Predict the structure of Ribose-phosphate pyrophosphokinase.
Amino acid sequence: MVRNIVVLGGSSHPELVEQMCIKLGIPPGRITLSKFSVGETRVEIQDSVRGKDVYVIQSGCGKVNDNFIELLITISACKTASAKRVTAVMPLFPYSRQPDIPYNKVGAPLAKAGIQKDSYTFESRPGTPAPQPDGAGSSGPPAGQLEHKLSRLSLDKERGPATAPGSPSLTSRPSFLRRQHTGSEIAGSTKRDSQKVVYANGTGGDWDQHRQPGYKQWVAQAGTLIADLLTCAGADHIITMDLHDPQYQGFFDIPVDNLYGRPLLQRYIQTKIPDYQSAVIVSPDAGGAKRATAIADALGMDFALIHKERRPTKITDRQNATMMLVGDISGRVAILVDDLADTSNTITRAAKLLKERGGATKVYALLTHGIFSGDAIARINASAIDQVVVTNSVPQNENVRVCPKLKVLDVSSVFSEAIRRVHHGESISVLFKYD
Ligand SMILES: O=P(O)(O)OC[C@H]1O[C@H](OP(=O)(O)OP(=O)(O)O)[C@H](O)[C@@H]1O
């Protein structure tokens, strides 16, 4: 039994909380989670956490946004109730597929002078969205800044010429923002569609026309915001598993322990897949190659890669990207390894390719996080995959009921051991070791 510790479970995964508490030998802390009729979250903690080491368990699944807010409120409640330390235990980390890098090359402005809409390629790389100095460069400013500055210009115009000492006049503003006035503006209209924009290189036009052709929308990048929200709520420590992008840890200035599901998956291969050494480990995309080769190397197995021929530029395009198999799997068992399956498009399309083109005799898919949103389970049931193995980092009871191909590995021991070690100030590096 671990003393002076409180484990509080959120709404996302009660079974995992229960299993972890059994392994720690303590009852779960008493907490009431409810909602106002408008949908706002209400949290009441019934046990004292004063001076205690508190672990709040919430996985990034189900109603992800609601659960995340619930986690933030619970952390904050513990902090204001004088908890000594609060650790957020997030078996599946939400938003980890949205780091602060422009997402798949979409999101930054492509408004480079001279490029016509039809000449964009999948390899077009957007410029950095920053204002150019006077006369330098040919790119326009980002839309948000431009909109803001234009609205300021409208105000300036309505107020008359700037006369305050030090106030820049219209003509002294950066040349990319110089605006031509249309007749309707002169008549007093401030409608945006009547505004003209002129860039330093002389290109320009109506606002809407101007921003449509070269500008793809700026995709919000949630990475640092999610990290900041957790820290701001009062989290002192994060424990998670198989972050989609391990570099995500860099967004935090508190300790992040990123546990691995790999030992569990490796053990499954060794113990449950007959003659596993003649099977081939396959990564379903380049992003997971490192993860998959690590398992192949550890088990002395061959490795193959599925390459998406074209880098799709939209999330919805991913399903249509052409897939190519690199490696020989003919007449062999293929073991797909990935960090997660969400819609299951990636693994089901990969399995089809492995059997139809590659000549694989059997296809396993081993994943840490089985999110299985929408009709993912139906897709798996109808697919060429013979068996899917996931951990219970998110609830799987309902999925197991409707998917006979699904096997679940338990992560409660790994997380409870991590909690025990963190609580006692012991190293948890042993949990990162592979067999
Ligand atoms: O079940 P699905 O909906 O098909 O999603 C699963 C895929 O999504 C993630 O990768 P992502 O597509 O984000 O690309 P990346 O690995 O290059 O980051 C993940 O690593 C899987 O490969």
Q: What stands out?
A: The first strand starts at residue 5 and ends at 9. Residues 103-195 have pLDDT under 50 and may be disordered. The chain has twelve helices and 16 strands.
